[in-house]
């Protein structure tokens, strides 16, 4: 796929109906020969729209007006390129806990939670947040995670977590203002509710920082899993991670995780973590598939804002 096609596809498939500013911008970049040529000087993995737009926001550039964006991007390209080369998209969305909770509720507790691709570890606190599934509220903390749930009874209570650990190639630290600024820049411009959610979830994590280990989800998972306390159910989980992992490494990861004791929860794009049979996805925006120990259970929306149970 050409860079122009990546940007036009991002506009129509990902940003449409979700971020008018990024839809406009991605379409403009897809027709902007000068910016496309600059992007072409970067390694293929570093050309994505989310990375470019996040870096421009981080550096204080304009993302609302495509003409202003063009001028700013061309004038500031060396700084943009340096940031794009050194960073990766690491959006950490606590809202995804709202789609993990129904699966956790059905497993034996207490839990030792181990998240691979944890970013700053904000999904490691499903027991601290509050949830609203329609009229049904669970928990009383902050942030309150709203989720439209269909085909399932909402979970009755919060899980009990006795150990939490994250593994990431580049763990982020929510107590570091620079890391928090990057997480903020990765949130799409109009999503003020997600920005507020990031602050509230970061406060939860900062109050009791998780064990975050720098490492690879294949090579370093068994050693971290071995640190989980006896007497708790080990749950290895991941959400929106495997699209960043090459196919051969994804297969190696599945083999490693299947060899561990406990349970495995995946919330991933079915194009990167395949299942033999799946029902038609609900219409609209992109969907992940939630699976327990390899069995698909539900379609979920990208930021945890909806779950459609089918199992
Ligand atoms: C899009 S973020 C998702 C973060 C978090 N799971 C969430 O749902 O909010 C993907 C994360 O996976 C991490 N990652 C990518 N490849 C990895 C690997 N091979 N081993 C460990 N972490 C990896 C990235 O560094 C990034 O922090």
Task: Report on the architecture of this protein.
There is one protein chain. This protein is an alpha/beta fold and 311 residues long. Helix content is 36%, strand content 20%. The protein has an eleven-stranded mixed sheet. A hairpin with a 4-residue loop joins strand 10 and strand 11. Helix 1 runs antiparallel to helix 2 (20-30) and helix 2 crosses helix 5. The radius of gyration is 19 Å and the shape is globular. The model has no long low-confidence stretch (mean pLDDT 96). S-adenosylmethionine is lined by residues 88-93, 96, 116-119, 123, 167-170, 216-217, 238-241, 244-245.
List the helices and strands and how they pair.
Elements: H1 3-15, H2 20-30, H3 33-39, H4 49-58, H5 66-75, H6 77-86, H7 97-104, E1 111-116, E2 130-133, E3 136-138, E4 144-150, E5 161-168, H8 177-185, H9 192-207, E6 211-214, H10 221-225, E7 233-239, H11 247-258, E8 263-268, E9 287-292, E10 295-301, E11 306-309
Parallel strand pairs: 1-5, 1-7, 2-4, 4-11, 5-6, 7-8
Antiparallel strand pairs: 2-3, 8-9, 9-10, 10-11
The structure holds S-adenosylmethionine.
Describe the structure concisely:
By secondary structure, the protein is of the alpha/beta class. Helices cover 36% and strands 20% of the residues.
Assign the structural class, choosing from mainly alpha, mainly beta, alpha/beta, alpha+beta, or little secondary structure.
Answer: alpha/beta
The share of residues in helices is 25-40%
Strand content: 15-25%
Extract low-pLDDT stretches: none
What is the string of SSEs from the N terminus onward? Answer: HHHHHHHEEEEEHHEHEHEEEE
The general outline is globular
Instruction: Describe the main β-sheet briefly.
Output: 11 strands, mixed
> What is the distance, rounded to the nearest whole angstrom, between the alpha carbons of the first and last residues?
35 Å
Protein name: DUF2332 domain-containing protein
InterPro entries: UCP012608 (IPR011200)
Organism: Micromonospora sicca
Pfam families: DUF2332
């Amino acid at each position: 796929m050409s860079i122009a096609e990546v940007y036009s596809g991002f506009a129509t498939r990902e940003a449409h109906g979700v971020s008018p500013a990024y839809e406009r911008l991605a379409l403009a970049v897809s027709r902007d020969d000068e910016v496309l040529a600059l992007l072409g000087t970067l390694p293929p993995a570093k050309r994505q729209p989310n990375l470019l737009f996040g870096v421009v926001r981080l550096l204080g550039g304009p993302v609302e007006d495509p003409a202003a964006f063009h001028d700013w991007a061309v004038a500031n390209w060396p700084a943009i390129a340096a940031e794009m080369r050194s960073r990766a998209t690491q959006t950490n969305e606590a809202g995804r806990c709202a789609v993990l909770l129904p699966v956790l509720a059905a497993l034996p507790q207490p839990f030792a939670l181990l998240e691979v691709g944890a970013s700053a570890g904000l999904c490691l606190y499903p027991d601290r947040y509050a949830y609203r599934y329609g009229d049904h509220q669970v928990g009383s903390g902050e942030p309150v995670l709203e989720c439209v749930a269909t085909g399932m009874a909402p979970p009755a209570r919060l899980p009990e977590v006795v150990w939490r650990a994250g593994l990431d190639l580049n763990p982020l630290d929510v107590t570091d203002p620079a890391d928090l600024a990057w997480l903020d820049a990765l949130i799409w411009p109009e999503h003020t509710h997600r920005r507020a959610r990031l602050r509230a979830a970061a406060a939860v994590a900062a109050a009791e920082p998780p064990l975050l280990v720098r490492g690879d989800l294949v090579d370093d998972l068994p050693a971290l899993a071995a640190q989980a306390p006896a007497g708790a159910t080990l749950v290895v989980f991941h959400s929106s991670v495997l699209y960043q992992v090459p196919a051969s490494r994804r297969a190696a990861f599945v083999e490693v995780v299947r060899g561990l004791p406990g349970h495995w929860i995946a919330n991933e794009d079915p194009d990167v973590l395949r299942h033999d049979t799946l029902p038609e996805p609900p219409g609209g925006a992109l969907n992940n598939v939630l699976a327990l120990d390899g069995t698909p259970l539900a379609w979920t929306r990208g930021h945890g804002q909806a779950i459609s149970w089918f199992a």
